[in-house]
Every structure is written in structure tokens, then in C-alpha cells.
Write a structure and sequence with these properties.
Elements lengths: L5 H12 L2 H7 L5 H17 L8 H17 L5 H16 L5 H29 L16 H17 L2 H4 L5 H25 L2 H27 L8 H4 L3 H12 L8 H42 L14 H9 L2 H9 L5 E4 L2 H8 L3 E3 L4 H10 L8 E5 L3 H5 L6 H5 L8 E5 L4 E4 L2
Parallel strand pairs: 1-2, 1-3
Antiparallel strand pairs: 3-5, 4-5
Amino acid sequence: RPLAGRWASMLIAVLVASSPGFVEWGYLALSDAAMILFSVLSLGILLRLNCGRPGFGKALLLSGILAGCAYALRNAAAVLPLTVMVFLAWQLLSRPQQWRAPFVNGIAWGAGFAAIAFPVFLYNLHTFGSIQPYFAAHGGVEYGLLRAFRISLWSLLIDFTGWRQAADIAWNAKALVLIALPLGLFLLWRGRQQWKRASQGERAALLLLLIYLGIGFAMIVWGRSRFDWVETTLTRQLMPYTWAALAAVLWVLKPASPSSTPQQTLMTGMLLMAGAILLWGRVDNAWSTVQREHAIRDTVATQGHEGAAAAMPGVIFTNHIKRHASRDSALAGLLAGLPQDAYLLSNHAALLSLTSGRNVRDFAPTADNLEALARMRARLQGRPVVMILLPTNTLIRQGQAATWKALVAKDLPTGSTTLLDTATTLAVQLP
């Protein structure tokens, strides 16, 4: 709101809540929506402060606490302290004679963040032997920085616009140059005009958002180039940054004053048109998803089995694997009967967590992941490790529905005990 105004900020809230990423992930009982809320509140406090002078200790402390809550939910929120550090460093370098203000503000914000994050670090160190006990082994698929950049750009564009056609320019170099370059030059030209008229507080707020967006995007690109993440898109990872991108763009398009000059009338029209296009993109994305689900249902109903739907263009068969698993009474009984201290892993962890109410961790049974798991077994202090595997969309599409268990279990350690073996589920307890 301090940047784009009241009506634009309301539009941003609607666009974020209806974005493809939020529609897909926000309704689940996961940490994504809460992490975004804490991030928005934390940075929102900073956006409203003129951090160029001291005197906002309580507000900065609260901002740090909210950022710590976001980090406690998802380690991806490490972008928040990095953002604040870069922002305060910029203030220190731009006005070295007023060095005391960034220093004091940084201490206040850092104290709030540490109040929440430090206990998390201690818990991780005591439980797992490491402050950051997260690991992700590479599955053998190489992604260079360029490919990782394109995947990340596509994911940000689909969540920003709602239009798959707009996001697809990330994979088309010519379209990227012909469309993105002129649009980027226009936004830079318009942003330069806005910057000249902006107050010191507006400039600081815009810079804070751009630092947050830039660091977050760079972290995702770097992570995707280094680790073979399970997701083929990164919408879930990029959705925390959509609101910042929307705020920056709408600030650029915001009319400079309420006067009715031709230029201001044009910018008002462009702002309204941009809002309408983004809203319609979200409606179109949701409607296309509903139509695709209806087509799958009709195909299954007429041909008698779900496998017939796998050959349909644009179908993600994983949804129907999950639907079948959610109704599997044998699987539900197994999960209910496992010891409470069992360490549960699955390649469909979110589904099993939701249906069973137990903590199931996402895990792909690749050789590298299993080797990393073996290294951390000592930290589990004798807890039974149970892995529940379901067929994947890729295996079904490759015509390997009959042999999927042999393929996903080929790297499991010798001596694993089979707990459940059905056509659609393989559950084993590791030795």
C-alpha cells in the first residue's frame, strides 16, 4: 500500500490469493500460505518505516519476529534476513555519515529474528546434529544455470500472469527478446520517471522489494541448478515472490497524480487493463483445470479404467494416483498401525500427511538419496524407517505401470521388509 496505493494493494491481495501457485498449494495444510503471510507482514512493516533514522525499535523487533516465524515454517525464508542485511548495507553505504541508524535498526531487527530462529537452530543441532539438517542429493539429471533460470522464470511468470502462453516465452529465446525486451525497456523508462518523483520512503520501499525479489529468485535458480528437485516446475518455490513483483510493476504503472493529463489518463488505463488481464488469466487457468479434470473423469467413466486417461494431452496422471491412494483402506490401516516414532518417507508425502494426519517426509528413492539417508540414520536413534511408494506420472506415461515397483525399489537396501504390496502401493521398512 505505501507504494501502489490502497486500491492497487487490494488488487494485489486478490491476485496473490487467486494465483495458480496459491490455488494449487495454498489450500493445503502445508507451510506455504503461512510462510507467505509472515513474510508479507514482516516486510510490510519495513515498507512502512523510514529506516533511515533510529526510533523504530519495537516495530523492527516485531518485523524480525515475524521473519523468524516464516523461517521456522520454511527454511526458504532465509531470504528475509539476507534481504534486510543487503538493504541496511545499502543504507550504510549511501549515507555513511548516518551510520548509526542502519546499525541500530539492524540490531533491533536481528534480535527479533534470532528470538525465533535461534531455538530452531538449537533444536536442529540437538536432534539432527546440524543447524541446517536439510539435504538434497542430485538424481543424475544435470541442469545448468541457463536451464534453471528458464524453469524459474517460467514458474514466476505463470504465477504472476496466470497465463501459460505468457509463461512459455521463457522457453522461446526469440519471443523472449521480441516481447520481454520492449516490455522491460518500457517498465525501466516508466520506472525512471516514477523514481524521480518518488519520496525517499518510496524509494527505500521499492528497493527493499527488489532486493527481496532478486535474492529469492537467485536462490531458486542456484538451488535448481545444483539439486535435482522432484518438481518439474518451481511455482511453489517462486510463489512467495509474486506479491513483490506485482507491487513493483503496479507502482511503475501508477499514475503520478490525480490530474487528468493525457499521460496520466493513459497510465490509468494501462493500470486498469493490466489488472483485468491478470484477473482474467487466473480465471482462465482455473477454468482450464476444471475442464481438464472433467475430461479425465469422462474418459475414465467410458473406458472403465484410469490408465486410459494417461494418454490424454496435458493430463497429469499423478492426481488420479493420489485420488486412488486416498481411498485405499489397506494403506490407511497400515499408516494407522505404524509406531508413533516411525520415520515415514514417501514419494507422495503431502497426500499421505493429509490423509493420515502423520508427519510424512517427501523422499524420492534414488541411489544418492538413499545413500544420504543411510548417513543420517544414526541421528534417528533407532527409530523404524518406513518408506511408502506409489507409482509416478512419468512411469505411467512411459507404459511401465506393470513394472513400476521394480523400478522405484531397485535401489532399496537389501534386507528391507515388505509391509504392504498391492498394485498401486509398495510399503517397506528399511533394515
